[in-house]
Amino acid sequence: MLEWYRHSQRYAIGMGVLGAILIGVFVGLRQGLDYSWLSMPWTWAAIAVAGLGMYGIFRKVGAAVGADWLKVGKMWVLLYELTDIKVRHRGMSMHLDLKDSRSRSLQVRVDELQEDRDMWDLVYNGLMHSVLVNGANTNRGVHSRLKVPEPPE
Predict the structure, then answer these.
(1) In this structure, are 72 and 119 located in the same domain?
(2) Which residues are CB-contacts of 149 (< 8 A; sequence separation ≥ 6)?
(3) Whose C-alpha in 1, 51, 52, 85 is 20 to 30 A from the C-alpha of 134?
(4) TM segments (predicted)?
(5) Do 134 and 81 meet the contact criterion of CB atoms below 8 Å apart?
(6) What pLDDT is recorded for position 127?
């Protein structure tokens, strides 16, 4: 593994605290703005466990890249053997959908790759090679959003 991405500890703690607060607010709203349930000790324990769960979700390693592969979760692809490269918008973020010559596929948020410059360089080189040398299928977003050159005619 050459590079990997993981949210900072400060960010993960902030998301855990925010998650716990939001759970408390939503439960209070559901109870008709009656927060008397907070006087029970087990509710504080449940909110703390939820906050720790949120911390764990944001602290796990999201993406890792080697010289010729990209792994997200348990899915991975060979970057220099990509056959399909698509940029799609899901919600408020841009996702990269990749499929390699052995029919392995994965989806990853582009901003998670771009936050670590070295990681993005490795992935971008694989994307360019797959498009320019292997003629991978792409959509317009790959060229307009990620600035990957179009293959020569």
Answers:
(1) yes
(2) 128, 131, 132, 143
(3) 1
(4) 12-29, 41-58
(5) yes
(6) 95
Number of domain units in the chain: 2
81 and 48 inside one domain:
no
Asked whether residue 153 is assigned to any structural domain, the reply reads no
Strand, coil or helix: 62: coil
Report pLDDT for 97: 96
- The reply to whether 109 and 123 lie within a common domain is yes
Q: Indicate whether 93 belongs to any domain.
A: yes
Give dist(CA 99, CA 65) in Å, integer: 15
Model-wide pTM > 0.90: no
Q: Is residue 152 part of a domain?
A: no
Q: What is the mean pLDDT of each run of 10 residues along the chain (153 residues)?
A: 63 83 84 81 85 78 84 91 95 93 93 87 95 94 92 77
Which pLDDT belongs to residue 143?
A: 94
Instruction: Name the residue type at position 17.
Output: V
Q: What range defines the domain where residue 102 resides?
A: 63-144
What pLDDT shows up at residue 21?
A: 87
Sequence-distant (6+) residues with CB within 8 A of 51 are 16, 17, 19, 20
Do 24 and 86 sit in the same domain of this protein?
no
Q: Put the strands of the sheet holding 63-65 in their side by side order.
A: 3-5, 63-65, 69-72, 75-78
